[in-house]
Amino acid sequence: MSDIYRFRCIASSGAGYRAVISYKNPNCKNWSKTDRVSGPVSVGISRDVFLKDIKEIKDGASVRIVMAYGVTRTEAKETFTYKSNSANYAVYDGYISTKSKTIKCLNVICESKEEGEVSGFNFTAKAAYAFNVNIEYQNPGNKAKIISEVVRVNSGTPETIHIGEFSEISDGAKVRFIMDIVAGRKGVRANQVFTFKRDITCLAKYECTGTTYDETIKYLGKTDFKPAIFVGGKGRNSSICSSGNKGLTSNTFVKIGNDKLSNLIQFGDDGHVASIAMDKAGKTITTFASGPKGAKLRGHLWFMDEQYNCYEEDIAYHGKRPTENTTKIQNSNIKYISWNDKLLGGDYNPALRLITIKGKFEKTFNRFGFVRTEKDGRFFYNTKIDCPQKDFGYFDLYDYCFDYATNMEKKKFEFTSNGKEYIFWLWKGNYLNLGAGAELGFYEFERNISRREAEKSIRLFVTNIILALFASLIPEPITCATLTATINSILSEVFSMHNQESYKFYKVVDESQYLKMAVNLHGKNNLPANISSYSPKDNQWWITTFVPYLQGVQPKDLAPTYTITFTKDKEQLFNDFVDTQIKACKNKVEIIERDKIVIKGIANGWTFDRRKLTLEYTF
User: pTM value?
Assistant: First the structure.
């Protein structure tokens, strides 16, 4: 005789019935019957009878299910023992017709079947059904608890829960899925119990259905996955790419090389997830963004195909409902995916990106210091020596604003020569609608400026350069007022985050100190190996290259090489810089050629040649 804690009553065919329980409590000789204890059971409508809810039935009682139809009672043959701590339940199918009345035990199911270790759950809802997910957990040595309404699962929108996002669940805890059907039955427990392990990548998969009265939890087994986890740096901005040149797609889902992503990409370690699916024709990409209850997520997901066509989806997620986005694509062989949650990472509108991608408004860009070139039907941008940016100098607060709004990485190399303090400032990243890019600037320290003066200078720069430029370019429905308000909001936010009292202000070096510069922009991780190169004849204080057709790239996937050549009259400037780099790496120089001193070598990342007076740095 099995112990159980409830009966499940169904009717696969025939007329409907209600359940009655026949029971005999411990130390009692006689059997008794309850009144009807369930609502109507009929085709498509199942009922659960929880014995703990029947006051007259005591723990340890012998129980049988009875099918009630009018005044007719049909009692099952099987007898069970009611145990309040049991994990088992009995499933019965009742059949009523004019010729026959039978009730048959289909199965006795254990709800606590151990299914091993998992790190999360994956859910789908069939047809037009929807349900909320609750997670029951029991930490080692503690009582079981429930986290309610973790996420809502809607038909057609898969949902993934990473248990590690819940700080209250300890490694090694027992976990179980409990379903609440929207406008239906609550507290439907899955039969499987798992052990949570934080350091594995394994999902328990469920497919669920449910009407107002009936429900089915179908366990599909476990699946290992290797999610592309976007980590590193502020904002979890990173990227993934395919293995070799095979692309990211297989059948209808994204993959990397031979490693399936289980239809999901995880935005960092806080539980935000996007499922990425491609239609069978390879014409659209659809993403579903979700996350923990009450969380918020805003960012931009970029895709790049083998022809370097770029597609972007703005992801905005609030609360527990997933958001869906669909983008039309030209080529199904996606080779690069990038995510960022920078404020201007999506650049507002595809029309802004098309302006630079298609080389529009050349005269306007030229007026603000940008020179446009064309190669193989693609446009590239560089800056002129006498650009208006020259008048504003540079200091750290500019970088803070730049990094807050979009994706960038920087490096600074300070040195002193002839009593003056100089700096080479290097950047690479995604430059709004100018796309992938790299810069090298040469500045001289002038003075310390106050916080107020620094903020005023940046607002003046934004008004005279950024807003003035974009005023001619802004497409509908964006207005200049909207852009102005947005940028001022960004500046105020950044200023509040970086409130140091003063900044080192660097002016552009004197024209006599200009140097011959070149930049070669290379790509990694399925970006083009040779993206662009720029080597102007005239000496420069600032050299740039911008590539609009590569949008949404991550700085880590760019590898610009900067080359600086000094003339003989600037040999002291060259040597002072090299000696500073040698000291910076504590004299651990990689020697390529040596005489009395190191003639050619690598110090602090810079390759130097004292004969040719050249410097080279790959960022």
Answer: 0.65
